Amino acid sequence: MKKILLLFGLMSIVLPCVAAEKYASVNVEYVMSKYPAAQKATEELRKQELDIQKFVIDARKDLEKTPETQKKTKEDKYNKDLQAKAMNLRKQEETKGKEIFTKFDMAVKSVAKAGGYTLVVPAALYGATDITDDVIKALK
């Protein structure tokens, strides 16, 4: 009998704690598709990628017309320029990605705190509340 009472006593302490847990999910891809800063960054990076592709095409065309005696020098110059452009693109991606993630993270934390959520996951979780739209609002 004492064991049963102890069990009920423990359950009355544990269950409210478990019941107080609130979970939420957020659709990261959808948020990013609606977040103007992410869209702008994506467009800028895509433009740089296209510029690099154009650079490579133009360099190949130029090398086809270049005499063999000058080809090695031009190839080295083009390769060096291409590496610099690729490095710049990687730095831009990293910088913009960090900025966007920081703002996204702050928005998720703000919405989670306001809603009293103890856990937010990036995918739909059974029983979790979807806070995607609230995060989008917080980013604006």
Descriptive report:
The radius of gyration is 27 Å and the shape is rod-shaped. The chain has 140 residues and is mainly alpha-helical. Helix 2 runs parallel beside helix 5. The longest helix has 48 residues, at 68-115. Helices cover 80% and strands 6% of the residues. The protein has a single domain (21-139), classed as 2-Layer Sandwich (Protein Binding, DinI Protein, Chain A). The chain contains five helices and three strands. It has helices at residues 2-20, 28-34, 36-65, 68-115, 132-139, and strands at 23-25, 119-121, 129-130.
Key structural traits:
disordered N terminus, rod-shaped, 140 residues, mainly alpha
CATH architectural label: 2-Layer Sandwich
Question: In terms of per-residue confidence, which ranges show pLDDT below 50 for 5 or more consecutive residues?
Answer: 1-18
Number of domains: 1
Helix content: over 70%
Class based on secondary structure composition and strand pairing: mainly alpha
Note the overall shape.
rod-shaped
What is the CATH first-level class name? Alpha Beta
Separation of the first and last Cα atoms: 59 Å
Estimate what percentage of residues fall within beta strands: 5-15%
β-strand number: 3
